[in-house]
Amino acid sequence: MIKVLPPLKPHIPEPPAGKVWHIAPAGHCLWLDDYEYYDQLGRDPLQQAKLWTLPSGKKRVDKLQEILERYPKQKHRRRILCEAARRGDVNLVRCLVETGLRVHPSTDPDQGQDSTQNESESIPDVDEPTVTPVHAAANQGHLSCVKVFIEEAKVEADARDELGCTPLIVAYERPEVVRYLLGQGAEPMIRAIGKEDRATTPSAQYTGPSILDYAASSGKVEVVKMIMEHPSFQSSTDWFTPSIIQRAARGGVEILTLFLEKGGYPLPNSDGKFQVESLSEEQKKVVFDATPVAADQGDLESLKLLLCYNKKAGHDNLSTADIPDEWHKKFIYGLYNSMTTNSPRKFEFLNSIGLKEHESMSLDKLPDGQKINVQRLLEKAVEAGSIECTNLMIEKYGANPDKHRIPPGIRPLFIGALRDTAEMLRYLLENHDIDIHFGNGRHASGPTALWGAINLKSLDSIMVLLQHGGPVDRVDEELRNVKQPTRAILRGTWPSTGSRPMVFLQTEEHAKEYTEWTRQVWQNQNPRYVRLELDVDDNEWLRGLQLRKENGELRETGNGARELNEQEGDSLGSQGAHDVRNLMPPMPTVMDREAELKEDDDLIPEFRPYAIAPGYHDRLTGNPEVY
């Protein structure tokens, strides 16, 4: 059975003993920020020592003790502690606490400043309010680390970070941490710094969100109930604000019902009817403002509950006349978000109203006869891996699973490959007639779904696409009939002018020169290949791999046709500044995923030089990734 593995780790050269690397033309911007802590590659002390690659806790502690000998300053040790807390390494956390380090910094930016601190070249050892280890541990749910901070380091349970948040507030998604902190005396009614709060505002008067606000928005029923059972909540009325109902409208009907009941709102009688007339004017305003929030981000039951307070509309047989103008956009957003959350019932309910989406909702024009862009809805469902909604869009509303809009010029299969929704790809390929050769983006010979999956390391999707034909541009003949466990390289090439992005399937030996080259380019953490482990069981799909169609077969004609490649587009000339095809990128991608792949958290960050010399990025000559 095929295994798809990420690329080999980069080879980061080590300088001779007692020396450091100098990076030309410019070192990493982090080095410029603190040259004592970071090296010119941007690595922190833990990355420089490759501590996170060590397999055992004892070895990591031993390595940490070596590191601490070179980093005596409190601010540097606190950064190391914060990283250990974020990762939940309790052995490292305890080791650092036992050094006597003051775990929590002062959140006063002026505290500890020394007027003589710039007389030497040394980095001032002053507190950094942004580095709060206990908050890092609480937010990530690392209870064992939180216990060390509270019980051994004696950090206050209500210690605040620079935003005024306590560990309890940032732990709103971690019930076990919330329970522990409440048991340690954490105050649940504390608020963070609000937008209107000034620097002189006392912390007790902050107006920002509390843990209750965050837990309500995220649907954490267990956390909300814990807070509501606390004596501080039961003796306070400050928690009830108009915004808390809006937040609860996002979190699900159970949470919304809890807050409405606690806030004195009438709930359905035994016959299911509401005493709407008992609502105050203020309550009516709160419900009115919360209803579009539920339509946009809440579940169907929350929306219906809030609509029942609207005496005119209720929630049965709604029409466009029942929807105020202020609600319109949020209701349209709700149609699209139904695809993201795989909520076909909510979609059907909202769609039955008959609202028409606004012009700025989609890049392409709304098709004739449609009030909502069905094809784009399908793309949203595919992106989220929402198979029920995908099936609904195709079977009931006529969306085409093998069609692209102009713009953006990408098909559902490509979208699913970029987001690694592997089961969605399997559904599309096994239930619909999908062209796996289609070129996505600006040009007709653009990248295939397989190329996009390789680029963004969508490992599960790569496996599905290979098992359904690929396609590839070249395949080593030795891989057409595997007789024993074999390693291979699946790589994508970046197109040069006049060419197209290609996919090569090569034996490990054949691709060795290429993979070794990529390991030397430590500035690029996302080389365009993956490793495959193959066995005799893979021969069936290996023999079924398709070679990608020639350019002549990919060429498009008719209205909205794309040029074959960049060179052809240049020769034909521009169609004008308002040509919608100009909105289509030649190599579509997902920027947040690209950003994740640009660094190796264990070894080295994304390389961001503090200055860039002319021509620094012009490094294509001799680059084997360009074909």
Automatic annotation (TrEMBL):
Keywords, sorted A to Z: ANK repeat, Repeat
Protein name (record): Ankyrin
Annotated region (Disordered), positions in chain: 103-129, 552-581
Bias kind Polar residues: ranges: 108-121
Species, as recorded: Xylaria arbuscula
Bilayer-spanning residue ranges: none
Keyword Chaperone in record: no
Family annotation (InterPro entries): Ankyrin_rpt (IPR002110), Ankyrin_rpt-contain_sf (IPR036770)
